[in-house]
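Because showing beats explaining, we let one protein speak, sequence and backbone structure tokens together, and leave readers to judge.
___
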Amino acid sequence: INHIGSKIDTDDPPACICEKSLVDKVEKGCLRCGGVLGGGVMPGFGAIGGTALYALNQLKPTAIATAIEEAIKAGASNISAAAFKASEAAGLAKVITELKALSVEKLIPGIMKSIFSETHYTEATKIAEIILTKKTQTCGLSSLGNPICHEFGIKFNIIDPGNRIFFSDKVGITQKVTEVVEGAKGAAANASKDAIERVTAAIKAHETNVINATYAGYEITIIASIIAILIIVLIMVIIYLILRYRRKKKMKRKLQYIKLLEE
């Protein structure tokens, strides 16, 4: 209004000549930035962000599979150690349980410790020899009527319930111990397999969690960038609308004043 002259020619158009104010410059700047970001950059950035998220989701399964494969290779010694430990424990436990069921411990107390301090649980022949020696010492001719010796003989097929000799001590004990050891080997194999599956599953779970956490960080970064651009565009649009409203209001007052002067 300060630039409007006091002398106005009614033949002139109702307009005023004034310099661009800082508000006008800011308004147009916000309009340009908002237009560029909203009309070009933002859709393009959104497309890039969406493509990046899609690519991450496509790459993640491969990354998980690769990480698991490398971790399993790196932990092969640990997996083998766990499998061996589990198989040894299961096999030994199986032999001890079966020999106790055959009344070996009952006939010769403490023999389990003696057996497995001298040989491995898979050595059927050696185990049979130790049991045979101890049995001969315990069940001599003077102990034929010993109930425990009789029970032992029946379970090892050395005698039948009718007290008739069925097998010799060596044959009967060796056959039965061999059956026990074979069963223990099966139990050991199952325990080894279970241990391998358990350790491998733990490795897979760990590596999957690590990769998921890593990719989640990437996804959060991309989404945060998109949100930041949206907020910037929104702020510029709001500033533009406010300044535009104020400019229109100011121009309306100028036109009203000019009209008043013309009248």
